[in-house]
Amino acid sequence: MFQSSFKYYKSKNPPPSFKDVFVIEEGHPLLKPHPVELTPGANFPGLLPTNRWKVYELTTRPGLLLFSNPFTETGQRQWMMRCLHDYPLHPNTTNILDKPAGTDWWQTLRHLPDASARRSHAKTLRWTTLGYQYDWTNKVYDESRRQPFPSELAALVRYVASVLGYARFSPEAAIVNYYPTGTTLAGHTDHSEDDRSAPLFSFSFGQPAVFLIGGTSREEQPDAILLRSGDVLVMSGAVRLCYHAVPRVFTDAELPVGLERSAERWTGDESAEGSVEKRWSALEDEYLQQSRININVRQVLRENQQTLDSPGECN
To answer: What is the mean pLDDT of the chain?
Structure first.
């Protein structure tokens, strides 16, 4: 049943209906409001005040939290630029394994002369790993390939985790996925971390996608959720080990009327200061109009475990 749903939402001809897709900000009887810890004083940079966050738990999938874009426009642009400019750089690993030492994917794209060449080059980057580098062949993390986790991303995730009641969460690894429109992510489970009881945090930017969340078997009918730019998803508890997938990344033009304004989430008239706005250009917009970026952050080690080679508390 999981695969049939995957094929349904992947289809371009005929296109899928969105009538059974959960849209986070519209609310739904099965989306139960989830409490947040209101934070007095200064807000986290790039995020809305927590009293404006709309956080829900999908009652058919206990432990699956969804919240609609808690980012400001400037905040979205900030994280988009980090994913494009900074995270594909050494010592992080990318799928472009044969690139010469010192090659900068984004700088190469910037200097290409025409849009067609830029689109072709943009599609070459599909993922980069942060912190603990993931071994895609053996499906494990390797202590010898542990890199420093980006401090600014760690701060964001710790803040979000604490607001949602996961104050003990420790961000130690992340995979940043880069999806051209029309691409997919096959159904799978995430089970390589030593601590599989810790939640997984997922941040979406750019073009929209349908996300499927099922059960512990591919025989279970999944739920479909529309994720748009800035939306955050948290997999915790039993749902942490459930099958999930992205059957298709859509363009705004392919969505029903009223759901197609993704770019407004990062291109508003909001005034901003500092290096973020100085670095943003038409090239970032060009890339995001044809791509989706997803940052998913995990805790690899068990509590009080210092390395993969040392014991920690069992859950």
So the answer is: 89
Query: Known binding site for Fe cation: residues?
Result: 188, 190, 244
> Looking at residue 6, what DSSP letter applies?
H
For residue 130, the model assigns a pLDDT of: 95
Residue 13 lies in a domain: yes
Domain with 35, as residue range(s), is 1-298
Mapped onto helix, strand or coil, the DSSP state of residue 107 is helix
Report yes or no: 150 and 87 within 8 Å, Cβ to Cβ.
yes
Is the residue at 305 inside a domain? no
Within-domain flag for 120: yes
pTM above 0.90?
yes
Nearest CA-CA partner of 226 in 204, 201, 200: 204
Buried b / exposed e over 4-21, threshold 16 CB at 10 Å, is: ebbebbbeeeeebebeeb
Least confidently predicted of 2-6, 209-213, 240-244? 240-244
CB distance 34 to 66 below 8 Å: no
Which positions make up the binding site? 188, 190, 244
Which residue, chain included where needed, has tokens 């897709």?
Answer: 21
Structural domains counted in the chain: 1
Q: Look at residue 310 and tell me if it is in a domain.
A: no
